[in-house]
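Lecture 7 notes: from sequence to structure.
We start with the chain below.
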Amino acid sequence: MRNNLSVGPIRTTSDERISEAGSIEPPLPPVSALGDDPAVPTEVPPSGAATFTRNSVLSVGRLLISTLVALVLPFYLTHRLPVKTYSAWVLILQMSAYVGYLDFGIQTGIAKYVAEFEARGDHVGAGMRASAGLLLMLGSSCAGIVLTLVLAWRVPMLFHAMPATLYRDVRISLLFVGISLSVGMLCSICSAVFLGLQRYGVPMLLSLVNRFLFTGAVVAAVFWHRSLAVMGALVGAVNLATGGLQIVAWRRLGVGIRLSLRGLDRGLVRPMLQFCSALAIWTVAMLCVSGLDLTIVGRYDFGQTAFYSLATGPTNFMISILGAALAPLLPTASAESVHRGPKAMGEMLSRATRYSTILLVLSGLPLLVGGYWLLRLWVGPTYAAGTIGYLRILVLANILRNLCLAYAGMLLATESQKVTIAGASAEAIVNVGASVYLARHIGAVGVAYGTLLGAFVGVGMHFALSMHYSYPKLSISRARLFLNGMLRPSAIAIPTVVLFPLWWSSGAPAFSVPLWLFWGGSTVLLAWFGALSPEERARLLRFVKRGAHTFELAFSRSLSGR
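Predicted structure tokens for the same chain:
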């Protein structure tokens, strides 16, 4: 139920484990290709490029697998639970996810500092910074438990339209899930260490384990006709088990990164706190932008909660593809900023923005045009008809909002995140204000329009203000970033815009088979020949050939038993 802010941390937080709808190298090249100004040395150690490539592939692969598993839940629950019970369940998950916002960027800070000190060969320094994050996360975990208790107490007052017979089970389930996530958030610093070490395989594997266990627990509870309270208890047990696995993984594979409050230099807590202070504002903005939407719908238009929550599923998947591809950008760029100058970092930002825009548009257009059929196949015609309107507005809003996601990662890597406070705050204020006002007057669709309006304000503020102050560290003109990084790849959407009257409707798009072929073919051709240069197309083909060759060798060896 949660999306990324236009400029917000690239995160792998514990709230991913409770999302019902799932968290390149084809579009994203190695870091060595992200900066090519001839006037600036852009030599990147091969190991850095290889690490970024491997981590991007692992991240996207984990996303695809976890999404396939996550698709099972809405399909199963919408066919087995009454609409109001399903609405109550998604509100339990939404409120429990608020615990994740109390992370305040601490995981991001740990990953960043571990990456930097490991790049210098300072294992002790990396461990001390991670331990400083441990102290801060302990406080956040305790705050999460308190928040869960308050939310459980206020359930009847927050959702007065919810059937009173559900209040008891909702409260109990919320306590199980919220408290377990608070404990899991403390354990998640172990995964943050692995992210800083750029060893994405460990946290990705644990994430997949959690996804499979979460899905199995919920399906089992519904199959045996158990209550929402039992569902929450099983999910809480899964979260605690996964948290324990993170600790075990750190103890065995943490390669000398020490996590302990004993002997902690208290002077190191202040720099970590300062780094996280700007991220805390981002986190509050993220809460306002994408963490309150379903709660607002539940309060003002409870009957539409289930439909709106289903619309956030494909939207979150679209954004998760981008987030997974860009996840290695922060630790990689943090390490590379030690060797690169502002102009080279600006070139890196330009290319990363263009590739991320290509990925955004290519993943969003099928949802806009063919979203009705995807929803119908997934959750049936009734839910598809009630969801498609919300889905299209949210897809447009999130494409716009996340145009600056690569910019966010680069800001964190260069410790310039404070310059975006005004933009993030403006988007949050407009989003929440417009969503509440419109929800009271036109219902749930007003929340979606509030999200779209906030996205326009946020991106506009970043171009007008934030990029002016970040120029000393990311030296690229705003006009060039917009034209080359955003407008050029957005040309992929020309066929979709031309055919707008045929697909923007309350039902299925009025497309014949030849028209579908024209739309798909022209979109792919524009992406290949318009958005990518000849050198990039050649690089992409080489990458695909290397991947196919590696797979062929692995398959041959498996057949021969070697």
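Points to note: Residues 1-49 have pLDDT under 50 and may be disordered. The radius of gyration is 23 Å.
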